[in-house]
């Protein structure tokens, strides 16, 4: 027992974590080689190595248009989440306004409610009013899903800021808005950027809510991929999946770098 406690015990959790990580990584390691196969094949390993699937993706208006739509929506969600989430996180952390805990619970609701329930609720509310197949509706829906991550990221950064800085600035005659923009905001830079990257990734990968509220003119890339898998098994999906994996990996590494930089301050 003591041998397990002091010998194998510290290695068990990292071992399980690495096994789980490799289990999740294996599908990507299979999809990536498939994406370099020929135009008519979807085999692993591919019989020939080409860039034909990527050429088909970038020359097909439906695929390219869906990617452009996803990137535009994700960029808008990233900005809107920061504009709304940063002041909201500051109020929740620093003030004692009535209903603060209720607002915090409501803001975290998208993490607690099943996504399919949120998607159905949005569809039932938006459809009678003609708000489906609308880019603004998609941006607002994705912002709702991404907002908890911005609040968590900025809230964690705020807990590392000494309130004494704000008190000193207030004593020196600075107004609350000036304190927020000149004292607080520069210290939240890493937390805001991490939350913004999370928001971008969540919007870029979201499929369930988007499937309910998008249409032919506003179809995002994950919805396009789901539809292609359902109605046609096109090898181009492997190239699209590889591109999304690379983009997500780049943003995830950016979030990890920002978090490590924030911890080392």
Overview of the structural elements:
By secondary structure, the protein is mostly helical. The protein has one domain: MetI-like (MetI-like fold). Helices cover about 75% and strands about 0% of the residues. The protein is globular and about 70 Å long. It starts with a helix and ends with a helix. The model has no long low-confidence stretch (mean pLDDT about 80).
What is the residue-mean pLDDT, rounded to a whole number?
Answer: 80
List segments where confidence is low: pLDDT < 50 over at least 5 consecutive residues: none
H-E order: HHHHHHHHHHHHH
Largest sheet: none
For the termini, the CA-CA separation is 40 Å
Please state the overall shape, judged from the principal axes of the Cα atoms.
Answer: globular
The CATH level-2 architecture is identified as Orthogonal Bundle
DSSP strand count: 0
- Level-1 CATH class name: Mainly Alpha
Content of β-strand: under 5%
Q: CATH superfamily, called what? A: MetI-like
Which percent bin holds the helix content? Answer: over 70%
- CATH topology-level name: MetI-like fold
